[in-house]
Amino acid sequence: MVQPGVYRLRNVKSGTYLDASSKKQNVVHGWDSRPDSDNQKWDIQKKGNKFTIKNVGNGDYINVWKTDNSTDVKVKDNATPVRFEEHDGAYAIYLDDSEGVIDLDRGDNDNGTAVNVWKFTGAQQQLWRLEGSGGGGGGQHSGSQSGAQPYNPRGESSSGGNRPAQAPPSSYRGAVNPGTYFIRNVHTGTALDLAGGASADGTRVIGYAVGSGSNQQWILQGGFQGYTIKNEQSNTYASYQKHEMPADGILLTGNNNPVEWDVKQADQGYQIFLAGTNLVLDLASGDASDGAKICLWTNNGGNNQKWNFTPA
Predict the structure, then answer these.
(1) What is the pLDDT of residues 38-85, one digit of tens each?
(2) What CATH number does the domain located at 5-136 have?
(3) How many CA atoms, within 13 angstroms, populate the side-chain half-sphere of residue 150?
(4) How far apart are the C-alpha atoms of 62 and 116, rounded to whole Å?
(5) Does domain 179-311 have CATH number 2.80.10.50?
(6) In the chain, ranges of CATH 2.80.10.50 domains
(7) Strand 61-63 vs strand 90-95: parallel, antiparallel, or unpaired?
(8) Cys-Cys with 168: which of 76, 102, 146, 223 at CB 3.0–4.6 Å?
(9) End-to-end CA separation in angstroms for the chain
């Protein structure tokens, strides 16, 4: 349960923080960690059976003029009541009595990413971790360490430059131990293969006859809600492209921006869920041919959605 107090709100997908712009009036956006900035500190107070969220930097409140999809979330002198719903240690922040929540647009971690209202879908960009920031009785939530740097899933520095993508803190433990594996489909026996071992963003991850190449070797590393799955050859991650929203049919590709996967044991093998969703890795149509598509698809229990992990 959320206790009144002062917090920073970190987006689960992007690792960036809810920030009230110091240059653009009323604007709320996502921004790299600035732990000393009052613009990233939010005073959450109980109001009846709901809460208000007040920015410490400018004294204004989270406010929306309507709760339809794509409505901008702003800060103004009057508050829109909110309610918090917990999901695995993070929170969806519902606006008033609507089904709309505070959503970081596409979960991008670019500075200045818009914050909007969107009907709750369970996507990671709609979930926020509360990190204690002093004041009230807040304290630390969701296992945060005071002064710790947030996991930045695209490996970008707070100064705006690029650096090699970093693995998240190792806290998640799924049904398979962390390590390096060949990942083979239960239905066909074909392997998860990064096409050509290419390191370019958007390189397709496909089904392919089992070989011994490092482009078929995948490193599982613990994160917050799941594993990141990194290709041994390219050092890119099994993910989907930045502009895409997770949904049925979105192709699995290698990218520098990791996402997290929740590995769960099935009656045969394991299912690999996009963390926080009911979408799993799916060998499209159970196709056994080389180059078959791997995509996200709603879990239906089919063997083409199950995988075996063989140590590399």
Answers:
(1) 999 999 999 888 999 999 999 999 999 999 999 999 999 999 999 999
(2) 2.80.10.50
(3) 28
(4) 11
(5) yes
(6) 5-136, 179-311
(7) unpaired
(8) 223
(9) 43
